[in-house]
Amino acid sequence: MSRIGSYFIFLGTLFRNREKLRVYLSLILNECVSIGVGSIFIVALVNTFIGAVTCVQTAYNLTNPFVPRNIIALIVRDSTILELAPTLSCIVLAGKVGSNIAGELGTMRITEQIDALEVMGINSSSYLVLPKVIASVLMFPLLVIMAGFLSILGGYIAGTLAGVISPEEYVSGLRFEYKPFGVSFALIKTVVFAFLVSTISAYQGFNVRGGALEVGSASTSAVTNSCIAIVVADFVLTQVLLT
Amino acid sequence: MIEIKNITKTFTDRQVLAGIDGTFRPGDTSLIIGGSGTGKSVLLKCMIGLITPDSGEVLYDGRNFLTSNIDEQKTIRREMGVLFQGSALFDSKTVLENVRFPLDMLTEQSAAEKNERALECLRRVGLEGAGDRMPSEISGGMKKRVGIARAIVLNPKYLFCDEPNSGLDPLTSIKIDQLIKEITDEYRITTVVITHDMNSMMEIGEKIMFLYKGNKLWEGNSDTLTQSDVAELNEFIYANKLLRETAR
């Protein structure tokens, strides 16, 4: 409980005694490049294959001849938009971005770089962490939108190449019973996950005490705790927004 | 002038500082010496505001740092320069950007003025050609000098150095000590140096404070250091075999 309390106190320090706006703009831009552009490849790769696998596995399980084949595309679409693209992408990003944030801040802590900022009178948590949080909240949704497209495309390619569904059936399934709120739901989830991943990872890194071993442990804790927070928040948001 | 009064600090059940008093004057290079774990670094961190002591006062020219509000503390902090033990240079910035960083963050000068001032400080520490290099590309001694350049870039009134010689060879250590002494004299800075390097004590110790188990056991200067009758101090300074032999 005390760790949860200190996490919320840490969140409070991000927004107190902030530096000038111009200081943050360049930092946010750099973080957007690092978090966003740096994660495109892994997010694209994972989601393309997840879409492909979802399509083929759904086809494998649909043995009833009375169920139309375009249902396969509908299942790929809905599972991608509602769950796979936002949640799975954010878990991948927790591994890549979260461990990076925790490692970077942890190293800065043990090499006294954070102390150096503090003695200059700079709010180190706000200066170092706030740009990462803002960049995550901006870039994660863009990555998830890309992930959704690629996952559905992966399903199309795999399904048509494997001959389990025709291109016309796939497109018709994608258009069938489409609810636009699904996309809003995915983006709301993503923003929440982005905030959780960036702040939990930053908290872990910022509070490292010790040496290289502790930085490694902080990175591991950052990923583990972020993943736990993602799945819990996923359940809560699904309950609140979809029921 | 910096005054510290009755500084105490306890971590869980271990008292690290037990009521330390001291005065550090402008233009003096004051040394805080003692073995590992005697509270030197904790005292320095209490003085620069990285650790809040349990009790006591830290006065910067009469201004009580610990009871000041955030804005007053910021003002005092901007008059401080700190050289950390590991130099604490920002890995992602070049040497020049590291030195310019306090100017970027805390002043409204033009880019040209900031660059000029940062280069002037790099020249002062003998690193005029190293501005474009990354911290990972320079030696430990150069890192210390960049740390000094960054510490003096805002023309501080108070300079703190946490073990400036750690990890350096004796020759480089002497150069760093001399640089600190020259800068202190040149700008009449109040300089506080944490060290357990005997060379530093003998070369630049205009005022020396000896800490032992969180207590101040002795105070003097480099001339009186070897004439003390404090057993703990003698044990500390004559731990070095060469000094023991010389003393005989």
Automatic annotation (TrEMBL), chain A:
Q: Which positions are tagged coiled coil?
A: none
Source species, domain of life? Bacteria
GO molecular function list: phospholipid transporter activity
Which parts pass through the membrane? Answer: 21-46, 133-159, 180-203
Which keywords belong to this entry? Membrane, Transmembrane, Transmembrane helix
Recorded hits in Pfam families, A to Z, give: MlaE
Q: Name one GO cellular component term.
A: ATP-binding cassette (ABC) transporter complex
Xref: InterPro entries: Permease_MalE (IPR030802)
Q: Does the keyword Transcription regulation apply?
A: no
- Please report the name of this protein according to its UniProt entry: ABC transporter permease
Q: Which organism is it from?
A: Spirosoma sordidisoli
From TrEMBL, chain B:
Q: Which InterPro entries match?
A: AAA+_ATPase, ABC_transporter-like_ATP-bd, ABC_transporter-like_CS, P-loop_NTPase
Pfam families given for it?
Answer: ABC_tran
Coiled-coil residues: none
Keyword Kinase: yes or no? Answer: no
Q: Where is the ABC transporter domain?
A: 2-238
The entry lists its GO molecular-function terms as: ATP binding; ATP hydrolysis activity
The UniProt entry, under Gene3D superfamilies, shows: P-loop containing nucleotide triphosphate hydrolases
Which SMART domains does the record associate with it? AAA
* Alphabetical UniProt keywords: ATP-binding, Nucleotide-binding, Transport
Q: Which PANTHER family match?
A: INTERMEMBRANE PHOSPHOLIPID TRANSPORT SYSTEM ATP-BINDING PROTEIN MLAF, PROTEIN TRIGALACTOSYLDIACYLGLYCEROL 3, CHLOROPLASTIC
Name of this chain's protein: ATP-binding cassette domain-containing protein
Source organism of this protein record: Spirosoma sordidisoli
